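A further point concerns the way the authors explain their paired sequence and structure data. Each protein is reduced to its one-letter sequence and a matching series of backbone shape codes. An entry of this sort, consisting of the sequence and the corresponding backbone structure tokens, reads as follows:
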Amino acid sequence: MFSSDSMERHKKFFYLSLPLVLFYSGFDWECELKPELAEVVISPETVPWAMWDTADLSILREGNRLYGWIDANTGPGYEIGMLYSDDNGQSWVDPFGKPLLSRDLPWETVQIVSPHVLKRDGRYEMWYSGTSDGRLAVGYQIGLATSRDGVTWMKETSPVLPFGASGSEDDFSVVDPCVRYEDGEYRMWYSGAEEVKGLPWFQVWEASSKDGLTWTDRKPIVSDWILSAAPEVIEHGGTRHLFYVTATSPGKAAFQELRHRSEGWLLGFGFSHWKGETLLSHEQLGPVAAHSLYSPCVDLAPDGTGWLYLSAHDHLGVWRVVRMPMTLSRSWFGLF
């Protein structure tokens, strides 16, 4: 039992700390986009070997050059190639005129998509998704390829993140890896789906690994609206920021909104450790995204200014990559 003196001390501490808690709980992050300035920067015309689509950009900066890995439809299926830009992402060059990763393993015979590339200890590491199932968005698993020069890649023969255990909520499809290396450990965020009436029901998941090959601690972290998918995680201002897309209409699998979440201050003060808001609807991008949007990719400078890239799907079914200016800054109760 607490004594009366102890109770008084606790009450004083509570009342003294309450203004500080309220003050710090008001700090949040504000992400400003300028969709009116969005422009197509990668299209099927950019990539000589693309027959129809170009999508799912992953970027790395090396000096003044920006490297990008994308997937493109070659006719029989999607494969992965590399581009570069010397004007900060406004225009892109395909130096090889062919894909660098093809569908040559038994578990990836139909598509390989959604590359995500890190460079660590002088080696490039690419996590990507592949499927041997011809149904839309079904049967994907995540593989790993490595390279010394970013051009010639060696694949692991089996998926490094296969389907979840039978009965789990990611036992039908795992796709869209985003990987960071932090404090001696890899962290992956991905789209994981269970089967609902024959269709994949996606949520955003996370997992961890010591070597990038064996992944544990798989768990869903975001299930907004109808479906949530295509995570992009960056660190800015000492905080992780998560960008992802959602499907908002029952009966439609199209992803039509972009959302942003940031990890909360004060040990996750608030209802959720990750707090979110809608940043963009596909209609704001006009005809180029008349059907849907996907695969956010962020290129941000230390001052919080930069570019957001998105895969945009028009009413004819063609995917292109668009970009728009963005700013990520702190705010206090939205006042500054």
The first strand starts at residue 27 and ends at 33. The chain has a mean pLDDT of 89.
